[in-house]
Structures are given as C-alpha cells and as structure tokens.
Design brief:
Main location: endoplasmic reticulum
Membrane topology: Multi-pass membrane protein
Number of helices: 23
Number of strands: 16
Radius of gyration: 32 Å
Strand order of the largest sheet: 6-5-7-8
Pfam family, one: HTTM
Helix content: 40-55%
Shape: globular
GO molecular function: gamma-glutamyl carboxylase activity; vitamin binding
Catalytic activity: 4-carboxy-L-glutamyl-[protein] + 2,3-epoxyphylloquinone + H2O + H(+) = phylloquinol + L-glutamyl-[protein] + CO2 + O2
Structural class: alpha+beta
Strand content: 5-15%
Distance between the termini: 49 Å
Length: 765
C-alpha cells in the first residue's frame, strides 16, 4: 500500500465511500474532506483494518493500472534479455551436452533435462512467454508459458540457484494472478472492456511488499557478525568503483564503512525510504546508485536492472500518465495512455457512487455499488498468506536442516545476498575399488561443469552417487568415494568442510536432518583473523601465506610444487606432527615452532593435540619471483633502448624488444622469457586502452558482444527447431551451421585465446 493509491477521479470521503468526479464536472463548491494524518502517510485509515470486510474492501480498492502496466512491460523485456544471457540460451548446447556423461544437481533427483533439441523448445516457450508478458498479448497464457518453463529450468540445476533468479520466478508467478494487461497492452487493443481498467490495490501491495522483503531481509541477514566486522566482502574495497571514497578514506575504512556499513544501512532502510513521499526521491538516488554499482561489481545479469524497474512501483500508480503527458502530441499515438480516467473493473470493489452535475454537464456514475465477491475474498486471502509465507521462508532452515552447510541452507530463497565469501585451498577426491581395494584419485570436477558441489552436502551426495554410477565404466567396481575439501569462509582459517573418512556414496543424507559427516565451522578461532592481517602486513610482496586449522585425529596430506622453493610450516596453536614422506622423518611442533618442507615432495601434517590445531604455510613462489626479476631487467633495457642511453648492441634473442610495438613481435621472439614479457606488455596495453576508452566506444563494444551472444542463441535455436520438425541433417551440414552460429567478432576471435594464455601458471589474469 502507499500514501496515495486512490485513483484519479475517485475521492474518498470521511466515511470511506469513494466518489467519482472529474475535475470539470465537480461543483466548484464541493471540496474533498480533509484526510487523516494516517491516510495521508499510509494511504488507508485505521477503520480499514478493523474488520475482515473492510480489509477485503481495502485490498480490492480500484487503483490506476498505469504503473503496473509499465512494470509488466519492463519485466517482460528484461526476462527476454535474461533468457539469452543468464538462463543460458546462448550456450545451451554446452550446458546440457547431449549423450555425454555429466553429473547434474536438480532439486529433485527424478527431475532430468530433456534431449538438447527439446530443451531448446522449452526455452522457446519461455521466450515467447516473456515476450507475451512484455507486450501484454494473451497475457495469462504468456505468464503460464513463462513460469512453467522458468521454474522447470530453475529446479533442474541447483548450482545456478541464487536469490535474484528466485525473485524472477516469484514476480512471474505474481503477475500471472494480477491484471497486468490493462494498460499499454495488445490485449487492451483486442478487448476494449479491459483497456485502461482499474486493478485491485492488492496487485500493488503484493509487488511492493515483495520488493520490501528483498531489501529488508537482506539487511537483517547482514547483521551477521562477519558482515558487521567487514569480513564478508573485503575484496570489493579494492575495486575501481570505490576509488572516489579512497580519496578521503583508507581502504580499510572504505571496506568497513562504505562496502559493509553502507550495504547494511541501505538494505535495512531502502524499503521504508521508497514507501514514504518525503524520502522517496532520496531513496531513488541511493538505490539507483547502489544497483548501478552492483551491475559493474558482479556478474548478476538483469538483476540490477530488474530492481531499478521495481522502484517506480512505490510511486503513485498514475505516474506514467503524467510522465508521458510531457511528450509531444505527435508521439502520443504510440505512447501509453495519458487519459486520467480509468474505466471500472469487476476485479475491484466500489463503494457507493454519487453522480454530480453542473449547469454545463452531468457526470454519469463510473460504476454501480458492488458487493464482495468470492474472487475479491480470494485475492485478499492470497495476498495475506503469500506475504506471511515470504516472511517465514528465509527463516525456515530449521526445517531443511540437510542443507545447512555453514550457511542458511538453500540460500537461494533467503535473501542473504553476498553475506558469505569462500576460498578453496585444497580439494582431493579419492576412490577405492570395492572389490580389489585399489585406491586412486580423481580430478576435482570430473564429469561435471560446476564447482559449487564443493560447498554443499546435498550436492556432494549427488556428485558421489553420480561418480559411483560412472566409474564402473572404467573398470572400477563398487567404488567408494571420499572427499577432502578445505574451505575458508569470510577470511577464516582454511578448514575441512566434510569428514574425509566417510564414504559419501553410502553416507546418509536427508533434507530434514543435519549432515553427520559435515565438519563444524571452527567459529572459536574467528578472533585469529585480526592476527592474520598483522602477519600478512609484516610480509614482503613476494611472500604468501595460507592459514590452516584441523581437527584432532586427522591429518593433511600435501604436495609442495617445485615452483615453491621456500616453503615452511609454522604452528600457531595446538600440537602437530609433520611427516616428510620420502625421507621417512617425523617432527613434532609446538606453538611458535617452525619447519621447512621440501619442494617437489609430499608431506603430512597430523594434529596430535586434544584441541584443533592452527598452523600456517609461508612460501615464496621462486619461479614467479625469478620471472618478475627478469621482467624488471627487460623493462629497464627496453627503456634504455627507447631513450637512446643503451650503447651496447642487443643480442639476437633480445632484438624483439626494439620492435615491441609491432603486431606479432612476440611471435618472432626465440627466448621464452622475452616472448612472455612481450605478451604481457601487449595485454597490459590492451587493458589500459579498454579502461581509457570513451563512452561511445564502451557502448559499441558492449553492443557488439551482446549481439554475437544473442545471435548464437537464436541461430542454435533455429537449428534445433528445424531438427525437431524435419529431422537431423547430414553431419557436414550440421557442422557448417554450428560453425556459422559460433562466429564471433573479428577482434575477439583473433585475440581471445592469446589473452587467456598470457599468464597461465603465473598468477591470476
């Protein structure tokens, strides 16, 4: 509800009766009675909540359809774009891999994808459903087409679950039950009886409350100690978007006050600020700024733009009429209606209507007095139950206990957005042949396209079951599967999340019981994070550090790469025994003691104390350090050559430094160090050029990228539809068609592989 939901031409008198009168027809001596303070602020009176009858009447109060119609159009448009992007139409063939052995993670194990061509048909139905919502064409059917296919795809893959995808499905479901096609719709052109007709107030109440919940519950979830103390998203403070704040604040305070403090305050207050007239303009500014930043910080598809599209729902419902009335007259034919008089609708409840007359004109009554019908009561009941359910679900994880793995269960419906950040240091999958006892290791992620299984017990169980089914194809009978996965959540110690001694294939799992093989989060060690920052601050730029915590009776088996030529273990708490496997030596370490471990060899670290042990690896990537030293020398030499201070002739292997700016100069380099140096220089130059590009160039680059992405989705869809209708063509023809669909912009096609290969093995790109 909102401060002024009474529709244009409907005046609410002191007894709650609605009086329809146009501006011209109303007698000059008649003025609407003064509204109470509560009605001015909230849009309804205390009396509207005193009985069931008055509440149903309030929720079905006739309201202008304009704002709902504009939102319907924007939501449909954004979903049309989203289907080719985050829903995956442009890469559907890579996602579903017909016939390939792939482990999948549906919400219900019986739910499986169709064959590839039929999956394209599912997406076609969803696309035309979203298009129909946008145009308001065959509205109910379009909504059903969209939500049925959308929820099928949503439940089909838990690895893509997130809060905003869940929100899209909820909004699509709500629009199915609403009268969203009564303003600026093709249905309105086909059926004049619904064109520009009132909609019941509960249509707006439901959407506004849903958006309020998204903001407010997200804020409540951020009252978590990790967020308040600035550990959840600390890496964001280093992003260039926060550079203006770094002019006046150190990066530590930008992280604590702007990233975490600002996010907390905005989420807690955004819903309230959008609701009230006095604060709405400020809310629009901060909310828009917030979502525009998020669109650059995260790869979240249409979410930022969808939330921007929801903000006008909190304005007066007739705002589009006033907005489009400002456009020139010759454009009015293609723009939404600006007439201030919606027509009556049977979906609404009208109180007694009084006709008013003047010497010039008699205004006919807009509608007869209407009684509460079953659909009015059902609309009110649905609104109340839905709102209660949405407030309850984010805190329902005491029911779905099997999903509670260091987070609040299926967080895709919890609105705890970005509350947790994770990093993985060590992942090992061990299999054991049930008949021969042979032990082997699997590449983490084999038979799957996602990494999300590493964090959730339910997905780990599905993955282990899938591996158990696939491994017999490779002469491994009755395989047992063991996982040793180390995770750091919100900058804590790296620690195990699952018990490595448990065969997950045979392990019990239920959505209604806790995982017995889930290792507890060592929250008692959280205060060490302050010490971590002190230790890391005391190290030079070439030295790296990893903090480990382990449980009594368990051990970590680790291999030190040859690149890490200077690696040591230092104990912080507890007692450990370090076994050097090849040397068959054991060393016991107490807190404060340290030992160097050899590179290119295995070692094991046993926790032998009664309490969990804490230790840290301190290492230097000697290969990277040597490479950086060579790069520095080459850069200095190149600068001397360019400014003419280098007097000695360059040897042949260094000659490419002179022609470094020429296209393909790195290909002529015979020395691998020089070649890598020139590639890195070219990449840095390209990155700098892209960052310094003007707005038009950025827009063009964005448009071209999106064009080729959408183009591939539609071409592959056309191929699939042809296959369903007339059958598969020859392999040669199909290969040519797919190659044509895969065509990319020339620059990306030429440079993409090289960009990705520039620094492989030498840190992140």
């Amino acid at each position: 509800m909102e401060a002024r939901d009474a529709t244009p031409g409907a005046l609410v008198n002191s007894t709650g009766e609605e009086q329809t009168a146009t501006k011209d027809a109303a007698p000059k001596k008649e003025t609407p009675q003064t509204k109470s303070k509560m009605e001015k602020v909230f849009g309804f009176r205390k009396e509207d909540l005193t009985s069931w009858h008055s509440l149903v009447t309030l929720l079905n109060r006739p309201t202008d359809p304009a704002s709902l119609g504009i939102f319907r159009c924007l939501f449909g448009l954004l979903m049309v774009i989203d289907i080719t992007q985050e829903r995956g139409l442009s890469h559907l063939d890579f996602k579903y891999l017909d016939g390939a052995p792939v482990c999948r993670f549906p919400l219900f194990n019986v739910l499986q994808p169709l064959s590839l061509d039929w999956m394209y048909l599912v997406y076609v139905v969803m696309f035309f459903g979203a298009l129909g919502i946008m145009l308001g064409c065959f509205y109910r059917l379009s909504c059903l087409m969209f939500i049925s296919t959308y929820w099928y795809i949503f439940f089909l893959d838990k690895t893509t679950w997130n809060n905003h995808s869940y929100l899209y499905g909820l909004i699509g479901f709500q629009l199915t039950l609403m009268d969203g096609n009564r303003y600026w719709s093709i249905d309105g052109l086909r059926r004049p009886s619904i064109r520009n007709a009132h909609v019941p107030l509960w249509n707006y109440t439901l959407l506004r409350t849903q958006i309020f919940i998204v903001y407010f519950i997200a804020g409540i979830k951020k009252l978590d100690a990790d967020w308040v103390e600035g550990y959840s998203m600390s890496y964001l403070a280093h992003h260039w978007l926060f550079d203006p704040f770094k002019v006046i604040l150190p990066v530590e305070l930008v992280n604590l006050l702007v990233v975490h403090g600002g996010g907390l305050v905005l989420d807690l207050t955004a819903g309230y600020l959008l609701f009230f007239d006095a604060t709405r303009p400020y809310a629009f500014f901060f909310v828009s700024y917030f979502h525009c930043m998020n669109s650059q910080l995260f790869s979240i598809g249409m979410f930022s733009y969808t939330m921007l599209a929801t903000s006008p729902l909190f304005c007066y419902a007739d705002w589009p009429r006033k907005f489009f009335a400002c456009f020139p007259e010759f454009l009015r034919a293609v723009l939404p209606l600006t007439s201030p008089d919606p027509q009556p609708s049977t979906s609404c409840v009208y109180n007694e209507i009084q006709s008013t007359s003047t010497e010039r004109q008699v205004t006919p009554p807009v509608a007869k007095a209407s009684k509460l019908r079953l659909k009015h009561k059902l609309g009110a009941i649905f609104t109340i139950l839905y709102i209660i359910e949405q407030f309850f679900l984010p805190y329902s994880h005491f029911i779905t206990q099997g999903y509670n793995n260091w987070t609040n269960g299926l967080y895709g419906y919890s609105w705890d957005m970005m509350v947790h950040s994770r990093s993985h240091q060590h992942v090992k999958i061990t299999y054991k042949d049930g008949k021969t006892g042979e032990i082997g290791y699997l590449n983490p992620g084999v038979f799957t396209q996602t990494r999300r299984w590493k964090d959730h017990g339910d997905m780990l169980k599905q993955y282990a079951t899938c591996l158990n089914q696939f491994l017999p194809r490779y002469n491994i009978s009755d395989p047992e599967i063991y996982f040793d996965i180390w995770v750091s959540i919100n900058e804590r110690f790296q620690q195990r999340i699952f018990d490595p001694r448990v065969d997950v294939v045979k392990a019990d799992w239920s959505p209604f019981r806790p995982n017995t093989w889930l290792m507890p989060l060592l929250v008692d060690l959280s205060p060490w994070r302050t010490k971590f920052q002190e230790i890391e601050g005391s190290l030079d730029n070439q030295t790296e550090i990893v903090f480990i915590a382990d449980f009594p009776g368990l051990h970590l088996e680790n291999f030190v790469s040859q690149d890490l030529g200077n690696t040591s273990i230092s104990v912080l708490q507890g007692k450990v025994n370090v076994e050097i496997v090849e040397e068959k030596k054991n060393f016991t370490l107490q807190p404060g003691e340290q030992i160097k471990v050899p590179a290119g060899a295995y070692h094991k670290v046993y926790t032998v104390s009664e309490d969990p042990s804490c230790y840290m690896y301190i290492y230097v990537n000697t290969t990277e350090a040597a490479l950086q030293e060579n790069f520095t020398k080459l850069l200095e030499l190149q600068e001397r050559v360019r400014n003419g201070t280098e007097t000695e002739p360059l040897p042949p292997e260094l000659q490419p430094l002179i022609t470094a700016d020429d296209e393909g100069s790195e290909l002529n380099a015979t020395d691998p160090i020089v070649q890598l140096f020139l590639k890195r220089q070219r990449r840095m130059k390209e990155v700098k050029k892209r960052r310094e590009a003007g707005a038009l160039e950025r827009l063009e680059r964005f448009a071209v990228k999106k064009y080729y992405t959408i183009r591939r989705g539609f071409l592959m869809t056309a191929i699939a539809m042809r296959n369903l209708v007339v059958g598969l063509p020859s392999l040669e023809q199909l290969t040519r068609e797919v190659a044509f669909a895969n065509m990319k912009e020339p620059q990306a096609e030429a440079n993409q592989d090289e960009r990705l290969k520039d620094e492989v093995g030498h840190g992140e790109l």
